[in-house]
Amino acid sequence: MSIIASDHREALREVLKEIPATEVAAVGHRVVHGGSFTASSLINADVLARLEAFAHLAPLHNPANIAGIKAALEALPGVPQVAVFDTAFHQTMPEHAWRYAIPRQLADERGYRRYGFHGTSHRYVSGRLAEQMGKPLSELRLIVLHLGNGASVSAVMHGQSIDTSMGFTPMEGLIMGTRSGDIDPGLVLELAGSLGTDKAGTLLNKQSGLLGLAGYSDLRDLHQAIANGDEAARVALKTYTYRVKKYIGAYAAAMGGLDAIAFTAGVGENDPEVRRLSIEGLGFLGIELDEEANQNGGPRISRDGSKVEVWVIPTDEELAIALDTEKVLQG
Question: Where do the domains of the chain lie, and which CATH numbers do they carry?
């Protein structure tokens, strides 16, 4: 079914022409920035107000998430609705991993801390990875690489997130399609001073990353440019995968070892060259790539004797949201 709609309300009205409202038992909403929420929550006026208060922290996502919630509340009065937060899974990070080195009182008063994102995907994929390995999640040290237009890494130790690459907003961490990822805060101040905060924010969120480095935000276009001899594109890919590799090493150290790595999301699931370059040179950690399996998409892409297993695990955030919605409604 293809729908052209001017806003969320109109789109939902069209959807409900195909799915009678009487058949909708509940609605699960993905919300990117959940602030201090530690688990999925039944939506009420207080929850919605809290979401609106920190919508500016994820400007590419949260305003649209809230618009969808309001449209669903209007179209389906009386139907329970659940907010499933990208940040909730990472609330298990220890304080030394989530705290920024800025004045404690100011940080605590204003909620300035590392929250992490893509949590629904990281939680789902780490569970599926343990199933594929045939081992209890509670015994494993895992790194999940969610590589898409937005990208993040998580260290999942014994089933809990102990660190992740995104921080106060989804801009921190890996290089992404249009986001800068990790950057010297002094440069941020310089950009804000010379361009103004709004233009600097737009530049870092929408004009940076692979797009800023080489003019392409899509890895498929970047690969084609490399094939055509584009040197900027070649350096952009190397810079992108170098950042991934650094996080793998850092998180293996943080967990005191590593049992497996999962590549997931659009790039992670479909780009063998990104996978190869991201783990190239990590043999000292016990990672041995099976080149043929990698080219074929896995699911397991490490050699049989590899101390650290490497897998391609498709994410399914929609299923995870549905399961969380059911769990909340069951109390």
Answer: 8-115 (3.30.420.40), 135-317 (3.30.420.40)
